[in-house]
Amino acid sequence: MLAVIDITSYLEAQAKDLSIPGVADSIGIRGQDDLKLLEHYHQGKHYILPRHSIKYSFILNKGSDALAECWINAAASRRTCRATFKAFLECHYGIPKSHIDLKKYNVDHLHALVVANRMEHGYVRLALTDARVNQAWGNWEKNYAKNNQDGHGLLRNINLAQVAKLAGVLPPTNIPTEEYLLDFQIRTGGETDDNSLTALIALLMRGLRLPPGMDPTEYAMTPAIELNRRLKRKTELEKRRQVMIDPATIHIDLNDFREKKTKVR
In the structure, what pLDDT confidence band is assigned to residue 262 with cuts at 50, 70 and 90? Predict the structure, then answer.
């Protein structure tokens, strides 16, 4: 049975629940008609909070061994999101509303609203995040939404950047260095094969500011190709996984590697 008794244990359970894309990854749906699909996907049932309406929010209960999910209408205000999430924690887990320090934590959509609107999603999943980390990812998410023209879809799945945010990993501010990528993989439990690494680099690059006239896909793949030649340190990575070096001791020099933004031929 999942033991959630306070904010700390909730955050730990949340990070675990959203740590593996493809397993517990639903963060956006089109509307009420897709609730059955969501329930079937998670083998759960939804319910409505007291004095709330299905029009505005619902809770997905996945059983005593899994974390419940709080979903909100994508058009809801930030104030409504915070109030609904507090009500969810108090109603479902008995955590008093007063125990959520909104200066330390943010109640935020896992699904960027600009992308939710583009995909015609009426509901998005809420999460509790470290305020400093969440706000640091803000510009990255705006660029990602701008550089990726997502089409319509029934569900929106979580990506590694959102997993990293929940794990407390700060976003890259420039082309990600080798050290940053190693730290990212360790703290998110990411795969170490070349294909996964290439996909990770491409994902991170899509949230960075692009040079004028540069195609997002082309820009993402240019450093991926070059870095893939250099990142052959899997033995060291595995050792660091075992030792779990404190990320604060890892020196990240953003000037260590700057890719010439030339077109891939």
Answer: very low
With vertex at residue 230, the alpha carbon angle to CA 200 and CA 202, rounded to the nearest 5 degrees, is 20
Query: What's the pLDDT tens digit per position in 99-145?
Result: 989 889 999 998 888 888 888 899 999 999 999 999 999 888 888 88
Cα separation, 80 vs 124, in Å, equals 13
| 69-73 and 105-109 strand pairing | unpaired
Contact 10, 93 (CB under 8 A): yes
Cβ–Cβ < 8 Å for 133, 104: no
Output the CA angle 124-13-57, nearest 5 degrees: 25
**How crowded is residue 116: how many other Cβ atoms within 10 Å of its Cβ?**
24
Beta carbons within 8 Å of 115's beta carbon, 6+ residues apart = 28, 145, 148, 150, 156
The closest alpha carbon to 57, from 25, 94, 24, 82, belongs to 82
Residue whose pair of structure tokens reads 């960075």 in the numeric block: 208
First to last CA, the chain: 54
Arithmetic mean of pLDDT, 84-111: 93
Dihedral sign for Cα 126, 11, 167, 137, please: positive
- 176 in helix, strand or coil? coil
CB 10, CB 96: distance < 8 Å: no
- Answer yes or no: are the C-beta atoms of 190 and 183 closer than 8 Å: no
With beta carbons less than 8 A apart as the criterion, state whether 166 and 129 touch: yes
Give the span between the Cα atoms of 141 and 171, in whole angstroms. Answer: 10
Instruction: State phi, psi for 9 to the nearest 5 degrees.
Output: -70, -30
Alpha-carbon distance 139 to 108, whole Å?
15
Dist CA 76 CA 84 (whole Å): 10
Please say whether the beta carbons of 71 and 107 come within 8 A. no
- pTM score, whole prediction: 0.77
